[in-house]
């Protein structure tokens, strides 16, 4: 029991090692798998989940290479397929035939890809400021193949020079907030609870595989993204804060280009806040997520077309 709700630490063995996370609620209730964003950890949901309906079982995991979970072995590349396999392993271990998926940013893209590959296993998807499955928009005007090459080169370069510098807590916090300007002090502290490991000298190392930082996770041409998107035919709810990816990367343009506004199973919900609104002002997001969870499992009508 913490001031942010009642939860317990859980460990889930998958094919590459042990995943770690937090579970809230009764395992006999309908499951909700919660996946965090790039370079974050499952603590991103610590303030949101206690505000959600108590008749669901929430499992928030540190994804491979993040937080307390296992990293991939040397020579193995991080990709969307690694994370799809990870989700399958979680579901198998938990004994879930199907579940609801809640994903922030990269976690949202990951669950969307999983739902396209295993559509019968996902009842509905809730995307928190995530592009989902979208065609890649590249500001550098590089071809997809060029970006794949850059990603491989970065991976090999980093893997040959793996080092984990140590910081004071304030130094680590400053680095986190410098790269995530949306985070206030409390939100940064919450993420750092699982994002740091304390060394014998009292300083801290970042608890994350450094290869995750440099490697491009996945790229899709618009045509490829559409193929995947059409397979994900369950209700998909896009919760998009006005100062989040909508503003920074033009996620509206991506969705429009893919024709998602016209697809009946895609619901777009506009809220106030930034990329971390679910952690900074969780009540805003909790209201929308609660409505979604309380609905029957069917294709919902448009709630708000953006």
From TrEMBL:
Pfam families reported in the protein's UniProt record: Abhydrolase_1
Cell division in keyword set: no
Sorted UniProt keywords: Hydrolase, Membrane, Transmembrane, Transmembrane helix
GO MF terms held by the record: hydrolase activity
Domain AB hydrolase-1 as annotated: residue spans: 30-162
SUPFAM superfamilies per record: alpha/beta-Hydrolases
InterPro entries: AB_hydrolase_1 (IPR000073), AB_hydrolase_fold (IPR029058), AB_hydrolase_sf (IPR050266)
Transmembrane domains' residue ranges: 99-118
Family that this chain belongs to: Belongs to the AB hydrolase superfamily.
UniProt-recorded name of the protein: AB hydrolase-1 domain-containing protein
Biological source species: Ciona intestinalis (Transparent sea squirt)
